[in-house]
Specification:
Elements lengths: L2 H13 L19 H9 L1 H13 L5 H9 L1 H16 L5 H10 L1 H14 L11
Amino acid sequence: INAEYMGHFLSVYFFSKPSTMSHWETGLFECMEDPKICVVSWCCYPCQHAHQKAVVEGKECSPVDCILAGCFPLCCNYMHRMALMHKYGIEEGIVDTILAIWCCAVCGMAQQQRHLVKTGNKPAGCFMD
């Protein structure tokens, strides 16, 4: 994980606080609400991660993020999910976050994608309109 990302993660997550707390737009296991998101999250997990990360950080998508997510999926997804939750003020316990990533990473990735779409921040991902 590169130092720039780690610095951004630490500054966003630990040093700034959201104004209000909210919840995920959809549940973790509502994967079939949008089957396309579910399939893309399953088949192109690292790319989906990179596109979401770019939206959350407000930058261009990087192939390095795809590679990192492919090599270190649990670590990258944890950091990304925490940054996304912080940006949108989502309340979720650390145990829930770890279980979502460890037990059903694809469901978690799809949940994150649905949240971004429903909040108007649709990442341009593989096969996504």
